[in-house]
Design goal:
The protein has 21 helices and 20 strands. With 559 residues, it is α/β, with parallel strands linked by helices.
């Protein structure tokens, strides 16, 4: 079924961009969090810049999950199936991936992402849900990050081996293969077979981006499981390049890639210490400016900074926009957020009140409850002015610690209800994210250092004139200018403090800066606040965008 659309996207050499999850929109729910939304932004910018990219991912027909929260904040997960036939085109080409001694049939659904300025990127969603496959094999493409280690290994085999094979079957001429995290590392083994085991040829073809700054976050599989699932034909290669004792998917990618990068300068430093002997570069993440800029700010930028969608660098000229119009755009987006939040949660948030936003995957190192470490101090801050906060985020179904965090926030909200309005929004997705980052006054980020590889939500907030108030980790070390682009929580990474000293410093900054700097500026010095908003746009958003990110991949890795 060679349609005109498919023939068009097959032309020329391509960069094949592999990612376990890709977040293009809420109607195609094949993402769980930051990795997927980053991949979506990479695709969007590639289309805008007319880069020759093709993306490969899994279909995840049963979505990540739909989050339900009861009155006490207890999370339950509901299946949230979606119908690819309504949005994608099933391609006829079929390849085999041997799994547990069976040939599993893999096909691809095509979605062509169209840029508003004319470019297009094909996205291939790999699927095993066909009658010819056994039921256990049909389910491989059902659940993103679902099941046990065996299930994950099967998925990674379909993504890596199956992805390369489907690209070949479709006639793509691939110049480079970009692995967005280690889930797709099996593609390098497939390339070893294609290149007659010439490791230098394979390394020249492969690019690897690591996103995880802690050892425990990297996928590892026992060789007993690998033998059981994949057989013995590739064991020699896997042990040689992926580790003798256990198959480490990150090591496999590191050993078979010429270009390796972390996703922030600090992350590159940490990764170089974790993985000695490898040259690891730093390409700091970015976000797609047009996607994450709210409607009211888009109108302003179109009027005063024409061309900003293609050249986000033009946001550096934000001072051309009158202060009153900056404030009015913010207030309109804030009103839309408050109206939405009050409607879905039966809250009574005030659009005139200072509003904090916090929305991330609910897991312990993100420390979503740090704000509530001293409730008496929080009440004191609130008594002088008015403070309210909106939280959101899903916990992985098996992350009991993350689920407890959500319950704790519910408990704090109940305890503080007569003083401070705290709302936790259910079933966080890209649509809710856009409302939040476009409408709060300050974006709060409190990760445990050094576990934030990059983070991108604060970059999205900056596109909407929202200030960041964050622990100095990930990208914020690069974007932070104290009292200009936002504020730091805790010590600089160069300061040598033990854990208790660091925690004390974080709490001091969190409460003191809220009480004595941030909230008074918001309420009492509006001109200063608007200048801070402009700084967030002109000094942060102009640089921390995926157009800059993808241009760097082109010049440093793809060419």
């Amino acid at each position: 079924m060679q349609t005109n659309e498919l023939r068009g996207v097959l032309k020329g050499q391509k960069i094949a961009y592999f990612s376990m999850e890709i977040g293009l929109n809420s109607q195609i729910p094949t993402y769980a969090g930051g990795l997927g939304t980053l991949a979506g932004d990479a695709i969007r910018s590639s289309a805008d810049l007319k880069l020759p990219l093709v993306a490969v991912t899994l279909i995840s027909k049963h979505n990540y999950f739909k989050q339900k929260l009861d009155a006490n904040g207890r999370q339950t997960e509901q299946s949230n199936e979606w119908d690819p036939e309504k949005l994608l085109t099933l391609l006829p080409n079929e390849v085999n991936v041997p799994i547990e001694g069976r040939d599993v049939k893999v096909r691809a659904w095509l979605y062509v992402y169209q840029s508003i300025i004319g470019g297009a990127v094909p996205v291939l969603f790999l699927d095993t849900d066909f009658a010819v496959n056994a039921m256990a094999d049909r389910e491989i493409s059902f659940y993103l990050y679902g099941g046990d280690e065996r299930y994950r290994l099967k998925q990674e085999a379909v993504l890596g081996f199956g992805g390369v094979r489907i690209l070949d079957a479709l006639g793509f001429h691939v110049r480079k293969y970009h692995m967005n995290e280690g889930h797709s590392s099996f593609l390098s083994v497939e390339l070893m077979h294609k290149c007659s085991l010439d490791v230098e040829k394979v390394k020249e073809l492969c690019i690897f981006t690591t996103h995880t700054p802690v050892e425990s976050g990297h996928d590892r599989f026992s060789y007993e499981l690998v033998r059981d699932v994949l057989g013995t034909s590739d064991l020699f290669l896997l042990k040689k390049y992926g580790g003798d004792e256990r198959l480490n998917m990150t090591r496999l990618a590191l050993n078979l890639s010429n270009f390796i990068n972390g996703v922030a300068k600090r992350h590159q430093e940490i990764s170089s210490k974790m993985f000695t002997g490898y040259e690891i570069h730093a390409i700091t993440n970015g976000v797609h400016s047009y996607t994450w800029t709210g409607e009211q700010y888009r109108k302003l930028f179109d009027r005063y900074l024409p061309g900003w969608t293609v050249e986000p660098e033009l946001l550096a000229k934000v001072d051309l926009i009158p202060d009153g119009e900056i404030w009015q755009a913010h207030q309109q987006q804030k009103q839309a957020l408050i109206d939405f939040t009050n409607h879905v949660s039966n809250a009574k948030l005030d659009p005139e009140a200072f509003t904090l936003g916090f929305a991330r995957r609910a897991t312990e190192y993100k420390r979503a409850t740090l704000l509530f470490s001293n409730l008496d101090r929080l009440r004191t801050i609130h008594r002088g002015t008015k403070l309210q906060a909106i939280f959101a985020g899903k916990a992985h179904p098996r992350d009991e610690g993350g689920k407890r965090l959500i319950e704790q926030i519910y408990n704090y909200a109940q305890y503080l209800k007569d003083d401070i309005d705290i709302v936790y929004l259910e079933n966080y997705d890209m649509d809710i994210a856009a409302k939040l980052i476009g409408g709060v006054d300050v974006w709060l980020n409190t990760p445990l250092r050094p576990m934030e590889a990059s983070g991108t939500s604060g970059m999205k907030a900056a596109h909407n004139g929202v200030m960041n108030f964050s622990v100095l980790d990930g990208w914020w070390i690069e974007g932070w200018i104290e009292n200009r682009t936002g504020w730091a929580i805790g010590p600089h990474p160069t300061e040598s403090l033990d854990d208790p000293e660091c925690f004390t410093k974080e709490l001091e900054d969190l409460y003191n800066k809220l009480e004595y700097i941030i909230i008074p500026t918001f309420y009492d010095r509006r001109d200063e606040w608007i200048q801070l908003m402009k700084n967030s746009i002109g000094r942060v958003a102009y640089y921390f965008n995926s157009h800059r990110m993808m241009r760097r991949y082109v010049t440093e890795a793809y060419i």
